[in-house]
Amino acid sequence: MKELGRLVLLLLGVVLITTSCEDDFAAAGSNLVNDNNFDALLYDASQIEVATKPLIKMQSNLLNSYSIGFYNDGVYGDYSASILTQLKLQNPSPSFGAYPALDSVILSIPYYSRPIGQNEDGVQFKLDSIYGNNPIDLEFYRSNYFLRNEDPEDDYEPQAYYSNQQETFEGYLDPQPFFTVEDFKPSPLKVSYREVNSKGEFDTILASPRTRIELPREYFQELILDREGSSELLSDSNFRNFFRGLYIKPVNTSGAATTALSLLDLRSEEAKIILYYNTSEVEDPSEEEIEQKEYSLLFGSNIVNVINTDNQTIPTGDGIYLKGGQGSMGVIDLFTDPSELETLRDSDWLINEANLTFYVDENQISEDHNQPQRLFIYDVKNNRVLQDYTFDVSANDNNPLKSRLIHLGRLDEDDNGKRFYKLKLTSYVSDIINKDSTNTRLGLMVSNNVNIFNPVKVEVEGEENVDEDYQLEVVPSPMLLTPQSTVLYGPDAPEGNRLKLNIYYTEPN
Questions:
Q1: pLDDT tier at 194 (50, 70, 90 boundaries)?
Q2: Which Pfam families does the record match to this protein (predicted)?
């Protein structure tokens, strides 16, 4: 009984202490809310400024992936994407035997895909990052533009090539394409092909979905096999100077605006041009004296996405206009009233959560618009992600769509059917208020992979009068590979749709 009495007294003490602690906090603020299992007050009167920034050009030779085709957008118009790439030798000074004969030449590039099930035909796949299902043509040109690794005009820093250099690059193409693919359209079906094994025999390979295009044998016979022992194949540098680049250009034969855009994994080890050939050491060999071999041309270190935005328009207005590709982004300035920030810093608040909630402008974006699932926000001044990004425990390297959902919430819908994105900036805002961290500009854009930052150089409109230390100089590279777009309400929108910085806090007496 004594033990039971002591236990009861202990529990009463805990209750009294908890009640005393709760009484130490005063109710100050606009509203009392319950969020994330804590009672907190809401402050949402902070001044915010947002500006839409159209992109003039974007560095496009350091990407993880590359797009090809057309994208038509009901709000922003349409654009096209071409690819310029170097080729490199599988190995320098190749030997093809005394009497080589080219059998076939195959361009093989994997799509981004994932298995979704299995039936009597085996594993079934779904293609990712494929937009539209309309057929287009692809033209293949030899380029005579030399892609440098270093820039002699910039103290030999790594050379940057940009998305808006179509006119320059196409001025160096051969007059006619050496090959044209008609009615190109990605397929989700797995592929079967032959591959030479270590014994010189062909094995049948089953692989994930990819484009496999048969290129003209005569062209590559003269380009590669007939040049065995020549200076052009002596080294990669010699070959890059001899064959300076391959340019792949989409062609829309329909005459009407179309969507047919594919994201290609050109950085994959499986992306290459494969030359299948027979060879022997005698002029008139028997079947036993013929060897089956293959030799590959790989995609070089310099690959450039070239974007044509002649038919694209970035709207103007009070909204936030976000367009992927060489499109537009938003720049956000928080706490634009210095006296307000000083008052907040004197408040000694405990910041429980801070977020920006962006509502979709349903008047400009229809329900069937290809709305991006994710937005990305970053520190413009320091060209880096926010602490909230770094410490997000929901990071998922294997599934970008479901990664970092705490910091970068996916497209969602409220009880009234209004779509929105909620981006949590708790650490960032807390450091500004409680640690006197520098308040900086924030960049906002669409993204197809929030796991990748990979900043690349950019030039945007309207940065001429911005302080040099705060100018927008880089953006995350996935923006260029995301054709989707949206229109969001800004801080001047009517109540209920207005962009606000919501700060949930508790305040001690």
A1: confident
A2: DUF4270 (PF14092)
Residue tagged 């069937």 (tokens): 368
| Of 395, 492, 500, 487, nearest in space to 449 by CA | 395
What token pair was written down for 390?
């770094």
SS3 state of residue 263: strand
Q: Are 93 and 234 in contact (CB under 8 A)?
A: yes
Convert 342-357 to b/e letters by CB count within 10 Å (16 or more is b).
eebeeeebebbbbbbb
Question: How many CB atoms neighbour CB 394 within 10 A?
Answer: 11
Residue 488 φ/ψ, nearest 5 degrees: -115, 150
Q: Give Cβ neighbours of residue 478 (< 8 Å, ≥ 6 apart).
A: 64, 376, 447, 448, 449, 450, 452, 454
Residues 236-258 have pLDDT tens digits of 999 999 999 999 999 998 889 99
Do the strands 272-279 and 66-73 form a parallel or antiparallel pair, or are they unpaired?
unpaired
Query: By three-state DSSP, how is residue 486 classified?
Result: strand
Indicate the residue among 281, 308, 335 that finishes a domain.
308
Helix, strand, coil tally for the chain in percent (to 5): 15, 40, 40
Q: What per-residue confidence (pLDDT) applies to 30?
A: 37
Strands 112-119 and 122-128 turn out to be antiparallel
Amino acid in the structure at residue 471: Q
- 19 falls within a domain: no
Q: What does the DSSP 8-state code read for residue 480?
A: G
How big is the chain, counted in residues?
509
Query: Rounded to the nearest 5 degrees, what angle is found at the Cα of 354, between the Cα atoms of 353 and 359?
Result: 125
End position of a domain, from candidates 308, 330, 352: 308
Question: Do 83 and 35 sit in the same domain of this protein?
Answer: no
Rg of the chain over all Cα atoms, to the nearest angstrom: 29
Q: Residue 216 pLDDT > 60, yes or no?
A: yes
Provide the domain limits for residue 132. Answer: 77-308
Distance, in Å, from the CA atom of 476 to the CA atom of 163, rounded to the nearest integer, reads: 14
- Residue type, position 165, single letter: Q
CB neighbours of residue 222 within 10 Å: 11
In tens, the pLDDT along 306-351 reads 999 999 999 998 899 999 999 999 999 999 999 999 999 999 899 9
Rounded-to-integer distance, Cα 165 and Cα 169, Å? 6
The answer as to whether 2 is a domain residue is: no
pLDDT digit string (tens) for 456-473? 999 999 888 888 888 999
Detail the DSSP E strand segments found in 395-451: 412-413, 419-424, 442-446
Q: What is the DSSP letter of 417?
A: S
CB-CB neighbours of 289 under 10 Å: 12
What percent of the chain shows pLDDT beyond 90? Answer: 79
The C-alpha atoms of residue 411 and residue 404 are separated, in whole angstroms, by: 13
